[in-house]
């Protein structure tokens, strides 16, 4: 008899499908059901997934063979979905951002706490193997003190089909909340979690319609981080990362004249790699580290070396592993409090852009010292 836990998916969109695929690569979870409010989507889910399909979160949460719910519905519905799952005693993985406002996010965390269930927030790219390897490098101290981290991402996010709701920050959407949640989660993770202020500007719009942003984040230990994101299309960060993007696949190959400047190995020749979120370089007192789809390129006093993350989990696979570890009693990194802190950082970008002043952060949490990630002994 299988001991795999039943996973129910709320919202059969791109994220839901990616999580379903992750359940097929682990023996710890199995896809036990899907819920979606759209009749057409439910029909497609029944055809694609071959599992029970429900019309509501409550029906899915009530199912006896569902142990964990993955909430991939629109952000404005996250709080109710988590509260419903918690009321039925089900553990929850909520997509980012956790909620629309800090107050809602805190209510969501409290609902899970009262019910005694595990609440994780993800998947964000801070779960990717190269990011974990970089944090381990920070903790080793081999390159001295971490001074700064620079993250840059160029995508075509605004050229993809978007509804009015997708571009409304009041509904938990827009570039800062949807994509910034990845970027700031990465920066908080690498720098230890305790951000203390944000100074930021947006461009090309605001309140969810922004086409990009730039932000400086200060940390309590003196480290600083910068985040730049442009979703206008044109130049693409994947040109600098072997053609690899958020899904860990090679899905861009430049033609003339770009092929004169960017030599990519091609879709058929690239080994298995990790997803990456743009480019990221960390500067230490005694060296630097560049994050790549294969791991890290480390510049130190003795020269340059590569550190591979081959065979390590990333993305939705890593989130399932973190949930499994949390259910065994180990402190997770990406719990509800962590999700609140990342949401606070994202919201501070909007606040700072409006005011033109730095915004202090009050709800930050440190990276746990004994967690799933630190116990995994990244080498």
Mean pLDDT: 94
Main sheet specs = 9 strands, mixed
Look at the helices and sheets and give the structural class: alpha/beta
Number of helices: 11
Runs in which pLDDT lies below 50 for 5 or more consecutive residues are none
Strand content: 15-25%
Series of H and E elements: EHEHEHEHEHEHEHHEEEEEEEHHEH
Distance between the termini: 35 Å
Main-sheet strand order equals 14-13-12-11-7-10-9-8-15
Q: How many whole angstroms does the radius of gyration measure?
A: 20 Å
Describe it for me?
The protein has 379 residues and is α/β, with parallel strands linked by helices. Helices cover 31% and strands 22% of the residues. It has 11 helices and 15 strands. The strands form 2 sheets. Strands 14-13-12-11-7-10-9-8-15 form a 9-stranded mixed β-sheet. Strands 3-2-1-4-5-6 form a 6-stranded parallel β-sheet, with helices on both faces. A hairpin with a 2-residue loop joins strand 12 (287-292) and strand 13 (295-300). Helix 4 (78-87) runs parallel beside helix 5 (102-115) and helix 6 runs parallel beside helix 8. It is globular, with a radius of gyration of 20 Å. The mean pLDDT is 94.
């Amino acid at each position: 008899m299988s001991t795999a836990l039943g996973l129910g998916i709320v919202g059969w969109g791109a994220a839901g499908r990616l999580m379903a695929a992750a359940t097929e690569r682990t023996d710890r979870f199995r896809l036990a059901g899907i819920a979606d409010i759209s009749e057409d989507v439910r029909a497609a889910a029944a055809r694609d997934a071959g599992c029970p399909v429900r019309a509501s979160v409550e029906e899915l949460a009530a199912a006896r063979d569902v142990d964990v719910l993955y909430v991939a519905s629109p952000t404005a519905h996250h709080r109710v979905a988590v509260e419903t799952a918690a009321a039925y005693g089900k553990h929850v993985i909520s997509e980012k951002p956790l909620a629309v406002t800090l107050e809602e996010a805190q209510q969501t965390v409290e609902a899970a706490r009262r019910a005694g269930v595990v609440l994780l927030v993800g998947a964000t790219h801070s779960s990717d193997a190269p990011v974990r390897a970089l944090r381990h490098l920070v903790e080793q101290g081999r390159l001295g003190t971490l001074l700064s981290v620079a993250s840059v991402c160029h995508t075509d996010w605004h050229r993809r089909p978007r509804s009015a709701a997708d571009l409304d920050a009041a509904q938990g959407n827009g570039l800062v909340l949807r994509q910034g949640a990845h970027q700031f989660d990465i920066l908080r993770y690498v720098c230890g979690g305790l951000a203390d202020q944000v100074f930021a500007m947006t461009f090309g719009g605001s309140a969810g319609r922004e086409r990009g942003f730039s932000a400086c984040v200060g940390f309590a230990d003196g480290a600083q981080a910068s985040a730049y994101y442009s979703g206008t299309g044109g130049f693409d960060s994947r040109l600098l990362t072997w053609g690899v993007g958020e899904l860990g696949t090679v899905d861009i190959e430049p033609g003339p004249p770009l092929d004169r400047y960017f030599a990519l190995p091609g879709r058929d020749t690239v080994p298995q790699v990790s997803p990456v979120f743009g480019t990221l370089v960390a500067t230490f007192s005694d060296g630097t580290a560049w994050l790549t789809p294969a791991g890290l390129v480390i510049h130190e006093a003795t020269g340059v070396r590569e550190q591979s993350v081959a065979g390590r989990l990333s993305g939705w696979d890593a989130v399932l592993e973190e949930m499994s570890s949390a259910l065994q009693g180990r402190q997770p990194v990406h719990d509800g409090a962590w999700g609140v802190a990342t949401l606070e950082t994202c919201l501070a970008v909007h606040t700072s852009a409006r005011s033109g002043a730095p915004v202090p952060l009050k709800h930050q949490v440190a990276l746990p010292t004994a967690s799933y990630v630190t116990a995994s002994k990244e080498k």
